[in-house]
Design brief:
single chain, alpha/beta, Glutaredoxin, 2 domains, 13% strand
Length: 187
C-alpha cells in the first residue's frame, strides 16, 4: 500500500474550497442583481402608475402641411399625439383657440396645453395665474365645444375636470413639462 503525503490532500481541499467559494460568489452576485432588478422594476412601475392623467395610445408624430390636410383621427379630444404641423404655437396665454394640429406639435416638444370650455372669467383668471408661472412649455387657450370645462394635455396624456383643482393642474404641468417626445431622427 502506497503512503499518502498530506500535501496532496490539502491542495485538493483548497482547490475544492476555492471552487465552492467562486461558485457561491457567483450565485450571490446573480441573486443580488435579481433583487436589485426587482426593486428597480417595482419603483419604476409605481412611478408610472402614479403619473397624473389618463394614458392614451401614441398615434405617432407625422407632419401635415396644413390644418386642413386630411389625416388620421385623433384618439382624444383635445388630442394628445398624432399628425401635426411642422411648427409650434407660441408658449403662454392665448385668447383664441389653438388649432389641434398645431397644439400637438407643442405637446411633442415637451409642452402641456391647458384648455377651457366655459364662460367662466374667474376660472380663466386662476388658470392664467397658474400658467404664467411657467415661461416655456405651457399654453393656456380656450377650446370651445369641449365636453369638460377644463382639459390638460401632454404627449399621450389627458386629464379633464369640470371644477378647477389647482393642485391637479400644477401636478400635471410639473409631471410632463419639458419632456421632448421626438422620435430619434424625427423632427
Amino acid at each position: 500500500m502506497a503512503k499518502r503525503d498530506g500535501k496532496g490532500t490539502k491542495t485538493a481541499r483548497r482547490g475544492t474550497m476555492s471552487l465552492l467559494v467562486r461558485r457561491n460568489r457567483s450565485v450571490l452576485l446573480v441573486a443580488c442583481a435579481l433583487v436589485v432588478a426587482v426593486v428597480v422594476g417595482y419603483f419604476a412601475y409605481r412611478a408610472a402608475a402614479d403619473l397624473p392623467g389618463t394614458k392614451m395610445r401614441d398615434l405617432g408624430n407625422l407632419h401635415v402641411a396644413s390644418e386642413t390636410t386630411p389625416h388620421a383621427e385623433y384618439n382624444s379630444d383635445p388630442p394628445t399625439s398624432g399628425p401635426h404641423l411642422p411648427y409650434i404655437a407660441p408658449w403662454g396665454i392665448h385668447t383664441r383657440p389653438v388649432p389641434r394640429e398645431l397644439q400637438v406639435h407643442n405637446l411633442e416638444d415637451g409642452g402641456v396645453v391647458v384648455q377651457y370650455s366655459c364662460d367662466c372669467p374667474d376660472i380663466v383668471e386662476r388658470l392664467r395665474a397658474l400658467v404664467s408661472k411657467y415661461d416655456r412649455h405651457v399654453i393656456l387657450a380656450p377650446y370651445p365645444g369641449m365636453k369638460s370645462r377644463i382639459a390638460l394635455t401632454a404627449w399621450t396624456r389627458i386629464e379633464t375636470m369640470d371644477q378647477l383643482d389647482e393642485g391637479r393642474v400644477k401636478r400635471f404641468i410639473e409631471a410632463y413639462q419639458g419632456i421632448d417626445h421626438h422620435a430619434p431622427g424625427g423632427s
